[in-house]
Task: inverse folding
């Protein structure tokens, strides 16, 4: 019996879109949201009655769980956000000052590219794209030559959501820090599936989403802000503290968390992280590597399929992007779903520059992203379907 069958009682796991959002979730994640809404629904931090205190404790425990997972010494330096997009916007707009120069990689998601483009259009910052190799890896030689006297920030996607390619984070951070440049890491594709150590990796700002590898619900995410970095606030409002003052509190996490938090979603996120810790992130990573290798190798053997990103799964998150010669990606996705019940994502995946780097712009790719609950049978079923489609279209 597959892990998927054990968890859901369903025979078929045809979900290959974990890079968009993970599914299924551990059973405890589903239950936690319901329990929180039915039994513990108080407004965290807003008064002293039992339910608010319970909600407050839950949020504190979730903050502690995130801190333990990313080896962050002070949980108060982690703020909860709506998703990774929200976290990246808070980081970019809260950190950057007029006149700053920003470096970003070609593998960034639109949640980085669009805020930066807007800031540039408005004349606030200047930006430079760090080119990437055909396999989706930021070019370190290019980076070395791209710094300017006013460069203040480097934004780096930990793993590409198009090819899965893992960036050489340590080298990039060392390079930036040697010039006094801070680094914002987008861990949307790696949090929960690849080990991240914010302290030993010297990360300044770490944005993550709760609904992908962390196995939590949508509407959750967060940002770690290294001690000593004070971001400008994007919103001010209720925090339940210092209510007599018209200035928003400066202490973290309240400084960057105005308004009632998503305690229902965070209850689920806590259970997602608990599940990851129980399984062990090494086991999760090993399983995903072996599933990806199996998928990549079987696809490699099919003539007329072109694969993108490294063959070595050690260098990748659990993503395989491909195209079929002379065939529209959207059509492949349509047939996979409608004839085989297989769900994946096709097109540009909100990362147009990444596709320019790997040579698939503007058509994009078919992206398969198996998860921890995918197994060998799922891959065999998927490969069978793709072989039939290749036979049909060629
Ligand atoms: C690399 C990357 N960054 C940012 C995001 C945005 O995540 P969210 O939808 O949680 O805001 C995604 C989501 O696909 C992503 O893959």
Result:
């Amino acid at each position: 019996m597959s892990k998927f069958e054990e968890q859901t009682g369903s025979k078929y796991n045809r979900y290959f879109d974990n890079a968009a959002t993970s599914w299924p979730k551990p059973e405890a994640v589903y239950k936690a949201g319901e329990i929180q809404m039915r039994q513990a629904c108080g407004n965290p931090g807003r008064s002293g009655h039992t339910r608010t205190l319970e909600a407050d404790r839950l949020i504190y425990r979730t903050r502690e769980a995130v801190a333990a997972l990313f080896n962050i010494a002070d949980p108060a330096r982690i703020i909860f956000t709506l998703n990774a997009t929200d976290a990246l916007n808070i980081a970019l707009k809260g950190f950057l000052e007029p006149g700053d120069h920003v470096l970003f990689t070609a593998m960034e998601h639109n949640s980085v590219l669009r805020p930066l483009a807007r800031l540039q259009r408005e004349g606030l910052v200047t930006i430079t794209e760090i080119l990437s190799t055909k396999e989706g890896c930021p070019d370190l030689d290019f980076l070395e030559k791209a710094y300017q006297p006013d460069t203040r920030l480097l934004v780096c996607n930990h793993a590409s959501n198009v090819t899965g390619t893992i960036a050489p984070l340590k080298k990039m951070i060392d390079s930036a820090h040697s010039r006094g440049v801070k680094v914002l890491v987008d861990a949307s594709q790696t949090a929960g599936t690849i080990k991240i150590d914010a302290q030993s990796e010297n990360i300044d700002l770490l944005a993550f989403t709760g609904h992908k590898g962390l196995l939590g619900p949508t509407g959750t995410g967060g940002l770690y802000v290294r001690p000593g970095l004070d971001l400008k606030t994007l919103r001010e409002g209720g925090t339940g503290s210092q209510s007599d003052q018209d200035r928003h509190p400066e202490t973290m996490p309240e400084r960057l968390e105005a308004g009632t938090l998503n305690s229902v979603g965070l209850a689920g996120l806590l259970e997602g992280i608990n599940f990851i810790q129980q399984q062990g992130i090494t086991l999760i990573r090993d399983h995903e590597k072996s599933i990806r290798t199996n998928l990549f190798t079987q696809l490699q053997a099919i003539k007329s399929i072109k694969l993108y990103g490294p063959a070595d799964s050690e260098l990748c998150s659990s993503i395989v992007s491909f195209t079929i010669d002379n065939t529209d990606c959207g059509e492949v996705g349509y047939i996979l779903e409608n004839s085989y019940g297989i769900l994946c994502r096709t097109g540009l995946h909100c990362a147009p520059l990444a596709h320019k780097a790997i040579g698939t712009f503007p058509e994009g790719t078919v992206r398969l992203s198996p998860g921890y609950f995918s197994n060998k049978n799922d891959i065999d079923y998927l490969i069978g379907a793709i072989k039939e489609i290749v036979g049909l279209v060629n």
